[in-house]
Specification:
The chain is of the alpha+beta class. It is 47% helix and 18% strand. Strands 2-3-1-4-5-6 form a six-stranded mixed β-sheet, sandwiched between helices. The longest helix is centred in the N-terminal third of the chain and has 24 residues, at 2-25.
Amino acid sequence: CTLRNRVKSHLSHKLKNDLLEQLIYIDKLTGSYNRHFLDDYLPQVIKDGKRNNTPISVILYDVDYFKRYNLLKMSSTIADNLLRPMDKLVRVGGEEFLVILPDTDEKGASLVSRRLLNSISMLNIAHEDSEYSHVTLSAGVVTKPSDDTKTIDYLMLQADKNLYTAKNLGRNCVVDANQTVYHA
C-alpha cells in the first residue's frame, strides 16, 4: 500500500510538472515551443556542445508573405519532420520559427532544412499573394562548431542574415552558412 501511494504521489507530481512546463514553454497558437523555452534551452545546448565537442546548428524560418495562415498545421508539419527528440521547434516571433539541432554539423543542418522546406511546400496551402500560389518558407541556416567562442546572439544574427539573403533571392529557399542556396 505504501509503494502504491508513493507511485501515485510521483505520478501526480510528474503530471503537475508537465502541465506547468506546457503552460510556460508552449506557444498556444502553434503548439511549438516559445521564447521562454529558447532562453532556457539554447544556452544549455551550447554548453553541452562545448563539453561534448559537438557542433550545434540552427535554422531560422520565416513564413513568406505571412497572413495568419494555419500556423498550427505548418508548425506541426515542421515538428513532425524533426526526427530526433533533441531537435526542437521554437516560435520566436509572429511568423518566425527557429529549429535547434544539437549535435548537427553543416551537412546535417542543410539536409534537415531542405526536408522542412519541401514538407511545407507539399502542404500546398493556397496563397494568392505569393508568386508560388501557395505558402512557402524562407530559411537561414548556421552551424556553431564546438570550439567556436562566438555568442548565442552572434549565432542568431548569422541565421537572420542568411534568412534575409534567402528572402532577397526570391523566397521559398534556404541559404546555409556557406551561402549555398536551395530552392524547393
